[in-house]
Design goal:
There is one protein chain. With 139 residues, this protein is an alpha/beta fold. It contains five helices and five strands. The protein has a single domain, classed as Hypothetical Protein Ychn, Chain: A (3-Layer(aba) Sandwich), CATH 3.40.1260.10. 34% of the residues lie in helices and 19% in strands. Strand 1, helix 1 and strand 2 form a beta-alpha-beta unit. It starts with 7 loop residues before the first strand and ends in a 5-residue tail after the last strand.
Length: 139
């Protein structure tokens, strides 16, 4: 049940898992927002945040697998998630389509993420009551 005064959020994550707290903080916020009757319109990964979409992340068994946690959350709540195409390509993250386009032997981004441009981010922000940024810190 969604409350009449419920907010609709777009979340922008710019920090990489294991290099910043941005993905963890964003996930804690997203879970609380959903529990509070709010909606997450879209999650947009930008800059180093695109590393969250990598299927190749393999943390030690005693650490939380943040990419897997995010994939499960997004899938469970059917939340669209987009990786900025320019950020992803610069960092070696490709979906099947981009791997074929650039004649690369493999891809490492799959559902629930899609690789797309800033237009998706802009559309989501226009469809949201709030856009929140979870930034990676300076190292």
């Amino acid at each position: 049940m969604i409350a009449e005064d419920a907010a609709r959020f777009t979340l922008v994550i710019t920090g990489a898992p294991y290099a910043s707290q941005a993905p963890q903080t964003a996930l804690h916020f997203a879970r609380a927002a959903i529990s509070g009757g709010h909606t997450i319109a879209q999650v947009f990964l930008y800059g180093d945040g695109v590393h969250l979409a990598s299927n190749l992340t393999s943390p030690p068994s005693d650490e939380t697998d943040w990419p897997a946690e995010w994939r499960a959350f997004l899938t469970e709540h059917q939340i669209p998630a987009t990786c900025c195409i320019a950020s992803a390509l610069r960092r070696g993250l490709l979906d099947d389509s981009e791997a074929r386009r650039y004649e690369k032997p493999a891809s490492n981004v799959s559902a629930p993420y899609q690789v797309a441009g800033l237009g998706d981010w802009l559309a989501a922000t226009q469809d949201s009551t709030r856009t929140l940024y979870f930034n990676g810190g300076q190292s």
